[in-house]
Structure of tryptophan synthase:
Amino acid sequence: MPGQWYNFLPDLPGPVPEVRDSGSPSAAEIAEKVRPRILIEQNGTDQKWIPIPEPVMERLRQCGRPTPLHRARRLEQHLGTRARIYLKREDVLPTGSFKLNTAIAQAHYAAEEGRTTLVTETGAGQWGMSVALAAKMFGLRAEIFMVRCSLEQKPYRRHYMELLGAEVEPSPSLRTAIGRKILQDTPGHPGSLGTAISDAIEHALGLPGAAYLAGSGMPHVYLHQTLLGLEVTAQLAEHGEELGVEGRGDHLIACSGGGSNLCGLVGPHLRARADGADLRFLAAESTAAPRLTQGVYAYGRTDLGGFTPEVLGYTMGEDFIPPPNHVGGLRNHHSSALVSLLRHEGVLDAVAFDQRTALEAGRLLLQTEGLLLAPEASHAVAAAVEVAAKARTERREPVIVVLASGAGFLDLQGYHEVLGDTREAQVDT
C-alpha cells in the first residue's frame, strides 16, 4: 500500500481555469467556515508527494487496502478478445465502494481540527455510507442528505448509515431554505447531487462544530483517491505488465460522476501519457446526465443554492433535472473543472450508456466472473466491452484496467426493475 498520495495537478495539460466567485458571502468564505483547513490547503499544494497520516494508514489497512487487481479471464474468453482485462476491486471495501479512501482521510482531519459533526450529501448512498463509517471510526456524528429518488430506490443504504448512528435526510429537504424553495418551485422534485450539495452546505453553515465533506469534485478528494492508480501500477508490475506499450492501445476506464474514482485511477498516469506512453483514458457516463458527451463547456455551479463557485466545465445547465433512474452517483448537471479540462484538452475520452446497457454489462460480469458491481461501475464494464471488441477487430492486445468502483448487492432491486426476469439470458462461461 502506498504511504503517500500523489499530487498530479502539475501533470495536467494546463492550469485549471479560475473560478468565478462573486457571491456574498463568497464561496471561498463559505469554504473557510465549513471545510477543515488542511483540505483547503491540499487543494492548491505544490508538494508532489503528500505523506498519509498514520491514523489514516492504520484504518485504510484495517479496511482492506490495498484492494485486489483481478484478471477477468472468463470475461475475456466470452468476448473472444486477446485483450487482458483487469478489474481494480474497490467493491471489496467494507462499505462496498472506493469512497472510503477519502472519507477516512477527511474524517481524520476534521477530528484533528476539533469538529464534532460531519455533514455531507450522497447520491446513490455509497459516499454517505463511507462518511457514516468514517465518522464512527473517529468518534464523530454524521448528518447526510441523500438524493430523494435514490433514498427511495435504495433503502438499505439508508439503513446501513443509520446503524452507524448517522442521520439521513432526503434531498430536497424541508430542513433547509434552499430545499423548501426547490420543492415549492418543483413539487415532487426527485433530487440530484446539485440539490443535495446545497442542502448539506446550508445545514453545515448553521450547525456549530460541523465540517462539510465533499465526496468528489475537489482536488483534495482526487489527491486521496490516487491510491487507486498507484496501487494499479504496482499490481500490474507483479503481473509482468507495463502500461503504455507503443501500438497496443492500453486503456484505463472508470465511470464518471464527480470524477473522483476516474481521477484517482488516471491521475498518477498523466505524466507517462504526456511523455509519450500509448495510454488512453476513458470516462463512462450515464445518458441520464451526459455532460461530457453532450454538454456545453461553460461556467456553472455544481449546486443549486449558490454555495459553490462557478467553475468552467461541461454542463447540462442548472435547470436540468436528471431522470430518477438507478445510477444515482452519475446524476449531476455539471462536471468538475479538472475532469472537464482533461476532456477539453483531448486527454480524456468519454462515452455514455443508458442504464439498461450498463446493467446488462453488469449482468455479463456476474455471469462470467461472479462479481456483482453497482450500476455506476457497470458503465465502466460496458465501456471495456466496447474497447475489447474494437481491439479484436483491429487485432490488438491491449491491457484494459477497469475500476470496479462499487459493489451491487444493495442495487439488486434496480437490476430487477431494469432487466426483469433474466433467467433465460445466460452466457456460456
The CA atoms of residues 359 and 415 lie 7 Å apart.
